Amino acid sequence: MILEVENWLRTYKKPILVAEYGADTIAGLHQSPEFVFTEEYQTTLMREHFKAFDYLRANGSFIGEHIWNFADFMTVQGITRIVGNRKGIFTRERQPKASAHLLRHRFHLLAAETDNYPIPEDLMEIVPVYKRARTTHDEQ
């Protein structure tokens, strides 16, 4: 994705906003390692996009991102859809998938970074804190 965006920048000399990215996901479908249509696959795909977006944003060529799509919705039947379009971060009943929580976390952290927006308390609870493990036996 980075190379593609950089090529667009060289060609059109305009900042880029990616308006559609995402993966079809069946709410509640889980598998490890991640596999298409699982919630893990959708969040992994989003994290990979975030890496590219952050790289491009740091280089001043990227001005925004918008997930496809807010919520699952019905489409005509076909072999490429599983009972409608399932690329939403919410189900058709507006229940959050894992990707909704990931995106909320990302947008709050971006707002904190760019605008000094306070990070909500409930997000602070899930930010991991890593401490160096103490040596419990001879490792030297």
Commentary on this structure:
Residues 5-109 form the Glycoside hydrolase family 2 catalytic domain. Pfam families: Glyco_hydro_2_C. It comes from Allacma fusca. Belongs to the glycosyl hydrolase 2 family. Helices cover 38% and strands 5% of the residues. It is mainly α and 140 residues long. It has one domain (2-124): Glycosidases (TIM Barrel). The protein has a two-stranded parallel ribbon. The chain is globular and about 40 Å long.
Short description:
By secondary structure, the protein is mainly alpha-helical.
CATH class: Alpha Beta
Strand content: 5-15%
The geometry reads as: globular
CATH architecture label: Alpha-Beta Barrel
Number of helical regions:
4
Helix content: 25-40%
The main sheet comes to: 2 strands, parallel
CATH topology: TIM Barrel
Structural class: mainly alpha
How many strand segments?
A: 2
Mean pLDDT: 87
Look at the structure and name the CATH superfamily. Glycosidases
Family: Belongs to the glycosyl hydrolase 2 family.
GO cellular component, one term: extracellular space
Pfam family, one: Glyco_hydro_2_C
GO molecular function: beta-glucuronidase activity; carbohydrate binding
